[in-house]
Amino acid sequence: MLSGFSGYENGPQKGEDTSSSVHIKSKNMPAYVIVEVDVKDLVRYEDYKKLTPGIVGSYGGKFIVRGGATETLEGEWNPGRVVVIEFPNVEQAKAFYTSPEYTAAKSIRLEASTGKIILVEGV
After folding, report:
1. pLDDT given for residue 24 in this prediction
2. Is 12 domain-assigned?
3. Is the pTM of this model over 0.85?
4. Domain span including residue 110
5. What is the pLDDT of residue 10?
6. Contact 119, 93 (CB under 8 A)
């Protein structure tokens, strides 16, 4: 689910719960897509992983973290796989996520895994 990708540049939407989110407004700051993935089908997920670097790059993105080892320092968060992708700005990150190229790849990811995705504005 990626509900957080819509409506940010215009601030909170009517009736939207803003208690746990900050609305992204700047076009000049880098943006990070942060993904927590629980891979269910390793073979199919490898197909997805082969497709994404070219798509990410075509939208100005680059992988910062791609499944490296994790260590919980605080709390009870124990993610299986973490991916962080940096984009030049929020608009490029959204363009990537909603692109026809990624939509096709995303269908493979959804078959092979479950997860959570957020968009975070950098500094």
Report:
1. 53
2. no
3. no
4. 29-70+79-121
5. 40
6. yes
